[in-house]
Amino acid sequence: MKVIIIKGLVVFDLDSTLIDAEIVDELGEICGRKGEIEDITRKAMEGELNYEESLRQRVKHLEGIRRKDVKETADKVPLMDGAKKTIQELQEMGYKTAIITGSFKTAAQHIGNKLGIDIVVANELVYEDGCATGQVEGPVTKSNSKGKVLKKLLSELKITNSSSIVVGDGANDLSMFKVAGYSIAFNSSPILTKKADVALNEKDLRNVLLKIRDNVC
After folding, report:
1. Is 13 a catalytic residue?
2. Is 15 part of the annotated catalytic residue set?
3. 45 Ramachandran zone, left/alpha/beta (phi>0; psi -120 to 50)
4. What value does the mean pLDDT take over residues 165-177?
5. Which partner for 21 in 54, 76, 77, 198 could form a disulfide, CB atoms 3.0-4.6 Å apart?
6. How confident is the model at residue 3 (pLDDT cuts 50, 70, 90)?
């Protein structure tokens, strides 16, 4: 029997990282609240607004949206350039891949399946009769949630912190950057760029792959 050796774990944020869009903003367009939601998203990603409060404010604007709208939106949003190649080659190199996102499981899992991601951790909208209530629940609702989720995954997979790599773009990724052995800020807000091992400013995930090859392998 062939023994598969796990080299490490590479974790990606979802919005504006694996996809070239923000799911919550796109859903806001459906219900006519995109402008308000985009403003809250920007403040949250730049660290101007508490993440937990910003998430609940944005989700409140999505009250009444249908589950099928979330699925359809996830199917339409563009993948970030190089996403498929990057995930495929990381896995060929021996890395497990994961999404840890404050976005919604219905969308995140759909995109994870499309890319062949190994693990998806996300929140979910609360629904009644197929329509969102304006509430959210899940493991990524606080500013330090992503770091806690990453620690839990590393423990379960028996991977050391030093063998983990994270890629993100906003202030809510800071807690992961503190845990991981190597952190990549991808077209990120200044608050995250300052804490990263490396910052990339081109919307092409193949540059992430090159950095991992050059600096970690």
Report:
1. yes
2. yes
3. alpha
4. 95
5. 77
6. very low
148 with 132: CB under 8 angstroms?
A: no
Residues 6 or more apart whose Cβ sits within 8 Å of residue 53: none
Pairing between strand 119-128 and 131-137? antiparallel
Q: Which of these is catalytic: 15, 25, 69, 169? A: 15
Verdict on whether the full-model pTM lies above 0.85: yes
Query: Which position among 13, 25, 169, 173 bears the catalytic label?
Result: 13
Token code pair at residue 19? 């996809």
CATH number of the 8-215 domain: 3.40.50.1000
- Answer left, alpha or beta for residue 132, where phi above 0 means left and psi between -120 and 50 means alpha: beta
Q: What is the pLDDT of residues 76-116, one digit of tens each?
A: 999 999 999 999 999 999 999 999 999 999 999 999 999 99
Separation CA 18–CA 15 (nearest Å): 6
